[in-house]
Amino acid sequence: MKKIIITADDFGLCESVNKGILECLHHGIVSDLSFMINHQEFEHSSTMLKQSGIMKVGFHLNLTVGKSVLGGKSKFTDDNGYYLDFKKVLIKMLINRINMEDIYNEIKAQMNLLVRHGYKITHIDSHQNIHLVPSIMKALMRLNKEFGLNVPIRMPSGSLYNILRAGYRNLFRIPILNLLTAYCCLRTKYCLNIRVVGIDLFDNADIVNSFEEISRVIRKSPYEIFEIPVHPGYPSDSLLEYDWYCDQRLRELNLLKDKAVLPKIKDFRIASFNELCCSSYITLHN
To answer: Which of helix, strand or coil describes residue 26?
Structure first.
């Protein structure tokens, strides 16, 4: 039976997102979460997780929202240590205006924060898929090895079939992600035997039909293990301080808690990263 891992991204962004994710874990079909280090929200988010008995999490790298863990001004933060927005950070990286050792140190500080609080990192991804910038991917792979993790790093790809009905933002987003994923896999020689599907659920008004299409893709695929990244949560003023993706999170939450979804995935087993043996789905080619 094919396995699907349904991962809720952005835990740690704010309380309303945390609440929605935990509801989907306990009362829906979500099987994993990725912890985002938003420094202002970290302690409260960590308390919520520990009260739920969850100590095995994904690391959701964040370089664009909130305050840097290291603090201080850098090429990717302002004078007060807050991250610059995604476009500014990306442009600076593309024109080689950011010292990648500073990025490496920031990523390492975020990972150390999770480890110091007792969390076991079971997989790696990022906010706004910034880890697909090749230089950041290189730093992540270095830290994956240095921390002795050998856990999967998300390599997203989307269905071109769903682009037009998945929202105008996906018209450009999905092809770019597909190209970046292919480039990262080629340059790093990183082979992940987990197929990431469903990135076209993001900002998608036709989310139910798209979920059905994802199920069909999984059935036809030669892969055996799949990850579906999702972004459930409740809208709130605090969420709007950090992210434009607000009301759409409630749409995803309702889908993930709807029992009517279960027949669409009855042929698959919902799994988690923690239960899978790392060596069975990661291959590093020399």
So the answer is: helix
